[in-house]
Design goal:
- It is built from 20 helices and eight strands.
- Helix 8 links the parallel strand 3 and strand 4.
- About 40% of the residues are buried.
- The longest helix has about 35 residues.
- By secondary structure, the chain is α/β, with parallel strands linked by helices.
- Strands 2-1-3-4 form a four-stranded parallel beta sheet, with helices on one face.
């Protein structure tokens, strides 16, 4: 049917190019017998060059290799609830790593993190654990394995108004019936409170495989449009060609959109342009032709400026990433050769950027949490500034540790930074436990997505305070590693 290409108004080859080097993670959840597995398999069968076969947690090393009654006994008659919770989230973490290593750009997860949250809660409530005990065990495990619910780009949940389709065990299996009821109750409560529309709800339709499939494919198409912003590519390309003509050497989309991680109500479109000669009239025409419904930030250089290194550090990072396949080339003159950036150039300039980011973050924190309250719609609100400096500091720390760890996505960058912080901690560069626990419990991408929410703004402020402590420990750790390497080479 190839419905996805029809919705996107794009060919298979063009879509493959748009998604090149990107990962879009989609979970399909729901109770038994609503068609999760059928829909996931159909997606893979129809678009097997783009969409993975569904990844299950039982494919991971962490999940016990049990089946049937043995698996049921492990799940419902456990000796150690904390080990059970730890195993589930360790398996989810390993599944995410499998997704990142997959060859396909679109990854299907059989049951999402939110759905496993409800399963764990329902199981432990059935066994008599209190809400406080459950929350403590889940928070500990999710922090330990960096399992944040925002890791999924699209969450599809197949729901049903009646329970006739739900396969239950024997009538005398009272605990299982309780577990099912708790699961449904918790899931419904989550969906009813979904004011941010995190979930795409697809209603179960008896004998309605194709109709449900179309709804799911439509959601995938919309997610691709949002994450990549590919629909704006052509408008930007046409504006550049009309304005610059033969003077245009290179047009690149960078930032979160260039990496397929665009965040609505936060991200800008970052465009980098290389011209043979700078002409103000051409630039003014280009700006006038750009889409007006989103902020597009243009950074423009001449070929000579690139050749002589007269570019800022952010641009050097962009060109370095471009050579790693992390940004999108919208146009390139066949005769133009991409610049090669030495990572040491970036690291040298990171020193001053690091100092600026630390001092900017301190100023925002001194201004206080209440400074946000009068400017929630302002892009320069304190919470936004705090987040931008947090993200910059984490990226600089990662570059100084291992450039390969740096990613354009907020979630992956944050997870890599937390790994680095743990390495520092394990090597004696520790921070107070309260800061450590806090940093590992916060979903930074969710903070970015909801930065105008007053409750989230308080969380952002607290994260900034903790990060200042953590960044110092990580910086000491990075310098120690470099010194050790120097001494080894001598």
């Amino acid at each position: 049917m190839q419905y996805l290409y029809e919705l996107l108004k794009i060919s298979k080859e063009e879509l493959q190019n748009v998604l090149k080097g990107k990962k879009i993670i989609i979970s399909i959840s729901g109770m038994d017998n609503v068609g999760k597995s059928t829909q996931a398999k159909k997606l893979h069968d129809e678009y097997n060059d783009l969409i993975s076969s569904p990844l299950h947690i039982n494919q991971t090393d962490a999940f016990p290799k049990l089946k049937g009654k043995d698996l049921s006994l492990w799940w419902f008659n456990k000796q150690n609830a904390e080990n059970f919770v730890d195993t589930i989230y360790k398996a989810l973490s390993q599944r995410y790593q499998m997704a990142q290593a997959s060859n396909e750009p679109i990854i299907i997860m059989d049951k999402g993190i939110d759905f496993y949250d409800t399963r764990v809660k329902a199981t432990l409530i059935t066994e008599g654990y209190s809400q406080e005990q459950i929350l403590e065990m889940m928070t500990k495990a999710k922090s330990k394995y960096r399992i944040f619910n925002s890791l999924e780009d699209l969450k599809i949940i197949i729901t049903a108004h009646n329970r006739d389709h739900i396969k239950e065990k024997t009538a005398d299996d009272e605990n299982y019936a309780k577990y099912i009821n708790y699961n449904i109750e918790i899931l419904n409560e989550k969906l009813n409170q979904d004011k941010y529309r995190e979930f795409r709800q697809v209603e179960f339709i008896e004998n309605g495989l194709e109709e449900m499939h179309k709804q799911i494919v439509s959601s995938i198409a919309n997610t691709i449009k949002v994450r990549t912003q590919y629909e704006r590519y052509q408008a930007i390309i046409e504006s550049a060609k009309q304005s610059f003509g033969d003077n245009l050497s290179l047009l690149t989309l960078a930032g979160s959109a260039g990496k397929g991680k665009f965040v609505e109500n936060w991200s800008d479109l970052d465009v980098y342009i290389v011209l043979k000669n700078f002409k103000i009239s051409q630039v003014k025409k280009f700006n006038s032709l750009l889409p007006k419904d989103i902020h597009i930030g243009s950074t423009i250089y001449t070929e000579k400026e690139i050749e002589t290194g007269k570019i800022n550090n952010r641009s050097k990072v962009m060109f370095y990433e471009l050579n790693q396949g992390k940004n999108v080339i919208l146009f390139k003159d066949p005769n133009y050769k991409l610049p090669t950036i030495n990572i040491n150039e970036i690291l040298r300039e990171d020193t001053s950027e690091y100092a600026d980011a630390v001092h900017n973050l301190r100023r925002c924190l001194i201004a206080g949490k209440d400074s946000n309250r009068t400017s929630l719609s302002n892009n320069d609100a304190t919470s936004s500034k705090i987040l931008k400096n947090i993200i910059l500091l984490e990226k600089i720390a990662l570059r100084n540790s291992d450039i390969a760890k740096v990613s354009g996505g907020y979630a992956d960058t944050n997870m890599a930074f937390l790994d680095l912080l743990m390495d520092a901690h394990d090597n004696g560069f520790s921070i107070e436990e309260k800061y450590m626990k806090f940093l590992f419990s916060v979903d930074l991408l969710k903070c970015v997505q909801r930065h105008v929410d007053p409750a989230i703004q308080d969380l952002i402020w607290e994260y900034g305070v903790a990060l200042l402590v953590a960044i110092e420990a990580v910086d000491d750790f990075n310098r120690s590693k470099k010194q050790t390497e120097v001494e080894r080479l001598q």
